[in-house]
Amino acid sequence: MSRIGKKPVVIPKGVTVNIKDGLMTVKGPKGELARPFPVDVAASTEGDKLVLTRTGESRTERTNHGMARAHLANMVKGVSDGWTRELEINGVGYRAEVKGDVLNLVLGYSHPIDYKLPKGVGAKVDKNRIILSGADKDQLGQSASELRKLRKPEPYKGKGVKYVEEVIRRKAGKSGAS
Q1: What residues does 58 pair with on adjacent strands?
Q2: Which residues, listed in sequence order, are joined to residue 122 by a DSSP beta bridge?
Q3: pTM as predicted
Q4: Which range (51-55, 70-74, 140-144, 149-153) has the least confidence?
Q5: Which residue, 5, 12, 60, 176, shows the most beta carbons closer than 10 Å to its own?
Q6: Which helix (H) or strand (E) holds 61?
């Protein structure tokens, strides 16, 4: 039995889960999410908990069991509480600004970069931090990754865009001749 798959998903008040015709739909105060649901996994409700069971013991059925449970738990947390991801900008003159659904970034290039935020992802800038928030964890992570790719942190001075919890391994650089 999958350790992840056998854990029940607790459904908070105000959140509805509907699994029908190979599609799981989760509605809540922060929005609505839908994702394909594997046919070899069955769902049953026990009070305010949703329990997923697999129909067989093949390798794909076992992997789909844990994956479906993880996706469902992420969707439930996303529509009830939401997800956030923080990025930090380091560098002289590097800055960010939000204008509607466009994030305007100045990252040391000869031109400013306008990053259009996908639907469902919001951004807030606080000094040198970009705080992304949304209900869909996958979409939020993809947006954060794309922003980081615009100017990856370099190992000598640490300039660039990095995740807040990320640790940049610093290099010593050139030593002067003495």
Answers
A1: none
A2: 133
A3: 0.88
A4: 51-55
A5: 5
A6: helix 59-80
